[in-house]
């Protein structure tokens, strides 16, 4: 059975309609720590609040005492704690919003954490401009003609083959992180096949 | 002799005072293609305009006809063309502004292009939140106590040692792109030593 959560990370609160819609229609909003302040301002209710709670004032701590889950693990960041909580609570599909639009190093770190989550759960990250999807096996993507697509290959020796992208890859490695950027879909779907991996696929909205 | 250029990339026009100051005080603003529209709105003068000029209207093409440099190389992006133009014209220090705050895949691609430039020229990228500096050899950084610092290691086998950062590395590899994020300076300088490389250092303002 599909059990879907939306994680609100502690970056900039979503402004684009697509991540906003995910958030507003979700029955299970999982809040990273300080993001609860922004969620309250938006008039939305959290299903759970995860983090070390350093940044929560005592009024909020009391108000949400039944749904606050405290983790003191210093080895993972708030986003990872929230993902792990979702997995432990049997959510099998996760959309992450609010993870960008703030410190650039956090944004890059969060994007490159996605493959680690993808080993355990279906996950995507929705930003103000597009969607990151980490994949651990070959996959077809829904698309539209001329959709801008970028492929990131953290393990540089991964052999990648694409179908229906303008600049085709055939058993090719992306040795540099920028080499798979600026591609484009040729129709209403495209396919990424690979040996090794994982990969991170970005699709502009 | 120091000859410094500021490249205005075609992302979001800078709003933070630090990249804005770089831009306003520069005698050599090198504009990536469509960014000229934003530079004009800000009342600033370009020293050169680089790109394939697809997005320039004919009035601008005429106005700046003497300083427009056209490249039709499809294998590099506009930012790389601008950097190469600077190197060819004997600039030996480059600050890149306006390269973030727009499509997330462009932002990541641009950040991971920096080491390629760093082999040939001193370069840094200034965003709304901090500064990326690619390094090809060990380096001391000016800092301040509690400055947030992240280290990105595109070649995962690079052995890194840090001095005066809160979470010290000693001949360690960063196998995952997020592993070097969320560090912190302990004073008015820190040092990054490494074998292999290159690395990209992020310092929050």
Automatic annotation (TrEMBL), chains A, B:
Its EC number is 2.7.6.2. The keyword Zinc-finger does not apply. GO terms for biological process: thiamine diphosphate biosynthetic process; thiamine metabolic process. Residues 22-123 form the Thiamin pyrophosphokinase catalytic domain. The keyword Kinase applies. Residues 130-200 form the Thiamin pyrophosphokinase-like substrate-binding domain. One of its GO terms (molecular function) is kinase activity. Keywords: ATP-binding, Kinase, Nucleotide-binding, Transferase. It comes from the Bacteria. It holds the Pfam family Thi_PPkinase_C. NCBIfam families: thi_PPkinase (TIGR01378). This is Thiamine diphosphokinase. It comes from Marinifilum breve.
């Amino acid at each position: 059975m599909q059990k879907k959560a939306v994680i609100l990370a502690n970056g900039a609160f979503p402004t684009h309609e697509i991540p906003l819609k995910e958030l507003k229609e979700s029955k299970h909003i999982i809040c990273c720590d300080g993001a609860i302040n922004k969620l309250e301002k938006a008039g939305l209710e959290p299903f759970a609040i995860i983090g070390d709670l350093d940044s929560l004032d005592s009024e909020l701590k009391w108000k949400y005492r039944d749904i606050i889950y405290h983790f003191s693990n210093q080895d993972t960041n708030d986003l990872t704690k929230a993902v792990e909580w979702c997995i432990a609570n049997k959510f099998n599909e996760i959309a992450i919003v609010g993870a960008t639009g703030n410190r650039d190093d956090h944004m890059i770190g969060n994007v490159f954490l996605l493959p680690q989550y993808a080993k355990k759960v279906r996950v995507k990250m929705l930003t103000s401009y597009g969607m990151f999807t980490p994949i651990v096996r070959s996959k077809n993507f829904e698309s539209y003609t001329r959709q801008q697509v970028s492929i990131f290959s953290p393990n540089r020796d991964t052999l990648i083959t694409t179908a229906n992208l303008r600049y085709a890859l055939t058993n090719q490695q992306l040795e540099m992180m920028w080499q798979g950027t600026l591609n484009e879909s040729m129709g209403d779907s495209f396919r990424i096949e690979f040996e090794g991996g994982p990969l991170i696929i970005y699709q502009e909205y």
